[in-house]
Amino acid sequence: MTDDLQEIKTSHDALPGPSATAIVKAKDLLAAEALAERTPHTGPGKHRLLLRTAAVGLAAAVAAVAFLTGADGGATPANAAELLQEAATAAARQQAPQPGQILYVNRTDQIRMTVWGHGRGRSEVTQEIRREYWIPAADPGGALTRLTYGKLRTHTGPVPTSMETPGTVEFQRAGPCTVHVLSPTGGGDLPADPDQLLTRIRADAEASVRNEQPEPGTAPPSKDQIERLIERTVTSRLVTLAQNPFPGPALRAAVLDALSQMPTATMRTDLADLAGRQGIGASIRYQGPDGWERAELIFEPGTYRFLGWRHLSEPPGAGVQSNASAVLETKMVNAMPNIPAGASEAVTC
Amino acid sequence: MPAPPPQSAPPTAETDAQLIEVSLRRPERFGALFDRHHEAIHRYVHLRLGESAADDIAAETFLRAFRSRTRYDLSRPDARPWLYGIASNLVDGHRRAEARRYRALTRSAEVSNVVSHDERVVQRVSAAVMQPRLAAGLAALSPGDRTVLLLVACAQLTYEEIAEALGVPRGTVGSRLNRARRKLRPFITIEESS
Q: Transmembrane stretches, by residue range (chain A) (predicted)?
């Protein structure tokens, strides 16, 4: 910088910063403005003006706190909708991988299931599975999944003999592992606009539900039942998409944004993921085929990075069953492993 | 199927554009933008109009920014040009006050021989704000040229950013800056040679 510019800069930099009083006053004004904006503009102009004026005083005591505590990632969302919108924003900020790059996702899952033995009755077990995904940016359909089975716990019934022993490794080519939430006739990729996405999924869900034939001898569902089935289908498909590692940043953002519009979403601040990480979560309740189900999407406080999910079902007359997953690592890699000769092909993804 | 999400490493600090985007849904998040830039905007206005006016105009700058944030171009991660543009427009509405300020700061040089305690205090305070010769030089500039010069010197904005802030072509920024520095040079040179 030349002398004249430097001299101006020196004079400028030597000036004192604003006084604490000036800062507080400015923040109060801004907080009042924010508070007034949050107030629905339903009344006449004069009413709004009074409201805004009153808000200046109120904001000094209340809303300004939000500014003073600095929301550079520190403030807690007020509800599940805000949380999911924050998460959508965080997801959208993620840079999409370039062609030639491969996304590696390492996650640990805990699956609770019912196993029927050969004449030995039924068992309730929980299996831990490590899933690693290699997803080529240019060809997600060519992804590879490696499953490594972990501990098996038997809750009820005999220890099943048909389960994979800990340490068993299986590979799965992407095809069946990718998640297509639309019916085969739904066709095409999902839009990355939340409203369009919701419209598309709802239309497909509605078609699926209405086309479903009732069991022989049972009465067709009522209009009300059909509406509930549609809502359930929409929610469960969005939850499925949110949990899946395959959607890119834009679609993931759209899914989370769409989920923020679900009326049954509630926020929880006391969640921990399967890896024990404390998180903030959106709990989405919906009616499943066997009773109420609840999906909890867990995010890192502040950054709203997706940590994992838990799934709980509440079958009538039975306890809560739980599946869970924690995303341990995602990174870009340059290559994916080769499937060893003779390696087993996974039957699940 | 679209491309998958990349790394899960904690993201770096949010850009200004990201904060503004979030503030569209959560207005209180605009406070983070205030925390980042209020002091700099205040200091810029302080240099031009004095501390008292800076308190009001810096506050007004953020109020106006908040109200117009829906029109902010989110493809621009750094909001400083936008904020400095708003502040400069507000300062522009106080041209006479700015001119009076520079003249006052200039006059402090003329009292160098005074001996009263009060006057010496005034002189020291003035010198702490700005060298009188610099104030005289700034007073000689047209408002438009002065704004460009101060945005380069104080805010360290690029030509492109100043063009964006003031809504003028980049070439205009260059010509204004050249003209301002050419006019300012004699004031600096005289002092250095003396």
A: 49-68
Of residues A308, A237, A246, A232, the one with CA closest to residue A274: A308
CB contact under 8 A, A12 and B58: no
What top-level class would CATH report for the domain B15-93?
Answer: mainly alpha
CA A162 to chain centre: 33
- The amino acid that residue A23 corresponds to is I
Q: Is the CB of residue B183 less than 8 Å away from at least one CB of chain A?
A: no
Nearest CB partner across the interface for B31, out of A30, A189, A332: A30
For residues A280 and A276, what is the distance between their CA atoms, to the nearest angstrom?
13
Q: What is the rounded CA–CA span in Å between residue B1 and residue B118?
A: 76
Helix (H) / strand (E) element for B73: namely: none
Q: Where exactly are the structural domains of chain B?
A: 15-93
Chain A residues in contact with B39 (beta carbon < 8 A): 17-18
> From residue B188, how far is each of A154, B112, B125, B133, B152 by CA, in Å?
86, 18, 20, 7, 17
Residue B35's contacts (CB-CB under 8 Å, 6 or more residues apart) are: A67, A70, A72
ipTM of the assembly? 0.80
B127 Cα distance to chain centroid: 20
pLDDT digits (tens, 9 = 90+) for A133-185: 888 888 877 888 888 999 988 888 888 777 788 898 888 876 556 666 666 55
Nearest to A119 by CA among A147, A150, A158: A158
Q: Do A330 and B129 touch (CB under 8 A)?
A: no
Split at pLDDT 50, 70, 90, the class of A306 is very high
Closest by CA to B54, choosing from A14, A28, A16, A31, is: A16
pLDDT in tens, A221-230: 888 888 888 8
8 Å CB contact of A72 and B55: no
**Pairing state between β A122-136 and A344-345:** unpaired
Residue A61 and residue B149: Cα distance in Å, rounded? Answer: 41
How far is residue A55's CA from residue A64's CA, in Å, rounded to a whole number?
A: 11
Residue of B nearest to A141 (CA): B1
Secondary structure string (H, E, C) spanning B110-153: HHCCCCCHHHHHHHHHHHHHCCHHHHHHHHCCCHHHHHHHHHHH
Q: Which residues have CB under 8 Å from A191's CB, separation 6+?
A: A197, A200, A254
Number of residues that make up chain B: 194
**B75 contact A CB<8A:** no
Instruction: Determine the angle formed by the axes of helices B80-92 and B143-153, rounding to 10 degrees.
Output: 150
Number of residues in chain A: 349
pLDDT at A247 (0 to 100): 77
Which residues does A107 contact at the CB level (< 8 Å), separation at least 6?
A: A130, A131, A132, A133, A245, A308, A325, A326, A327, A328
Helix H or strand E segment including A112: strand A102-116
Q: Which residue has the higher pLDDT, B24 or A51?
A: B24
Q: How far apart are CA B48 and CA A212, in angstroms?
A: 73
Closest-CA residue to B159 (of B143, B141, B178): B178
